[in-house]
Amino acid sequence: MEIIYGLENISPSTSKAFLTIGIFDGVHLGHQKILSSLSKKAREDKAISLVLTFSEHPDKLLHKKSILLIQTLNQRLETISKFGIDKTIVIDFKKEIYSLKAEEFIEKILVNKLNVDEIFVGENFRFGKDRAGNINILREMSKSFGFKVNSFPLIEKNGKKVSSSIIRDLLLRGEIEEANLFLGRNYCIEGEVIKGHSRGKKLGVPTANLTTDNEILPHGVYITSTKFENKFYPSVTNIGFCPTFEQKSLNVEVHLFDFSENIYGKKLKIYFFKKIRNEIKFNNPAHLLEQIHSDFRIAKDFFSQKSYIINQD
Fold first, then answer.
1. Are the beta carbons of 239 and 250 closer than 8 angstroms?
2. How many CB atoms lie under 10 A from the CB of residue 105?
3. Total count of domains within the chain
4. Which of 6-10, 87-91, 117-121, 221-225 has the lowest mean pLDDT?
5. Phi and psi (nearest 5°) for 20?
6. Paired residues of 18 in beta bridges
7. Quick one: pLDDT band at residue 15, thresholds 50, 70, 90?
8. Angstrom distance (rounded) from CA 287 to CA 291
């Protein structure tokens, strides 16, 4: 997949161009339906499949909302690429974009700049200044400019409509299993191993401390699988403030079972399965160690069942 940063760096396609637009945060089941349909139809019609997305969430910039994104931009692009998309265009949500009325956005961006033949969007798609544009305006203007509109209904799971906002809430509450169901894969954070306080090592349970650009870091202790150099290791991950030691800064640390390599400065990906418990403040390190071993037993029992699947897609 070719990644293009900025509309100024793309030329109108001389081939058929099929397009979808959105933030695609999390690339959840609803997004996946649109992306797979776009890619399949483009191949069948010998057209170029295009994704137009934003480097940041527009509501963060326009309304100063505190929105924590499910994925980093790089993770989002990596997931989108798995659907056989030809090109993804990443744009900044600047004034010249958000000030465009819906009709102007269609004419100036979709038609004049991208020369689209077909558009693939969810039925709740909103666009243009003040989000005034909707699927009805898109369909109406398609008659004038000669492009086709394909819309997709929202997907439901467990009686809930799948959306990025619902998934964010589930993750922040530590409801990993339902979030994974809506994502269609395991929630994942990634980052680099850094030097920690070596408390785990002193207790006989060494951990790798991670620095990460992921914004959603659900507090608690979790059953996870950690990917290091294309190999997966069963693991337990703790995210929080280490209340027993009254730490001030947020800490992400993971213990990999049957692992003893020095991995400072290395990259890890951590895939979440389920929450074991909340963080607890213990009276002393000995009580903490007892609880850690209990957490390990729960995790090892989970992995011994051999019924789990690590879904990276």
1. yes
2. 22
3. 2
4. 6-10
5. -125, 150
6. 49, 118
7. confident
8. 6
Q: Which CATH number characterizes residue 260's domain?
A: 2.40.30.30
* 61 within a domain of the structure (yes/no): yes
**Per-residue pLDDT, 63:** 59
**Is residue 42 situated within a structural domain?**
yes
Tokens at 70, concatenated? 């499910």
- Residue 201's identity, in one-letter code, is K
- Amino acid identity for residue 202 in this structure: K
H or E element in which residue 180 lies: helix 176-183
Inter-residue contact 311 to 185 (CB < 8 Å): yes
pLDDT confidence tier of residue 23, bands split at 50, 70 and 90: very high
Two tokens at 144?
């004038």
207 and 69 fall within a common domain = no
Q: What range does the domain containing 103 cover? A: 2-160
CA-to-CA separations, 232 to 186, 259, 297, in angstroms, rounded: 13, 11, 19
The answer to whether the beta carbons of residues 233 and 268 sit under 8 Å apart is no
Do 136 and 191 share a structural domain?
Answer: no
The number of CA neighbours under 13 Å toward the Cβ of 92 is 6
- For residue 2, the one-letter residue type is E
